[in-house]
Amino acid sequence: MRAVVQRVDGASVVVDGETVGEFTGEGLCVLVGATHGDGPETAARLARKLWTLRVLDGEKSCSDIGAPLLVVSQFTLYGDARKGRRPTWNAAAPGEVAEPLVTEVCAQLRKLGARVETGRFGAKMRVTLTNDGPFTVLLEM
User: Is 23 known to be catalytic?
Assistant: First the structure.
């Protein structure tokens, strides 16, 4: 699994004009992609890493201060544009594999005590955030 983690001061996701997930204040906006071979154990490892990653103000983690996370599925994280002008998506897991894995990341985060907001899998989403720093890091599990 791959995740782009952004430290934010508020984030939201809108689908068809409806806000389906949002929070205000300090937290993380996380774009998550799955690849072939990922499983529930990978999702659990990613959740633990996200919950304890010390990237918030004062080198704190979400677990330290109860900061929320907005988790948005994004298969394009596994796009490959090294050749030609059009990316390929061969490394991205198909929807029927990826959706349960992203759902598992959220479930594991909630099990750890996190407040988790989400987008809607497979939908055209508008993600809005205020990147705090700016601060962005890539995680690979």
Answer: no
Predicted confidence at residue 113, as pLDDT, reads: 98
pTM above 0.90, yes or no: yes
> Is 75 an active-site residue?
yes
Report CA dihedral (98, 104, 107, 112) to the nearest 10 degrees.
-130
Considering the candidates 75, 108, 118, 130, report the single residue annotated as catalytic.
75
Dihedral over alpha carbons 32, 102, 51, 12 (to 10 degrees): 70
Does residue 141 form part of some domain? no
Taking only the tens place, the pLDDT of each residue in 89-103 is 999 999 999 999 999
User: 6: exposed, middle or buried (C-beta count within 10 Å: 0-12, 13-18, 19+)?
Assistant: buried
The domain total for the chain is: 1
Say if 23 falls within a structural domain: yes
List the domain range (segments joined by +) for residue 76.
2-135
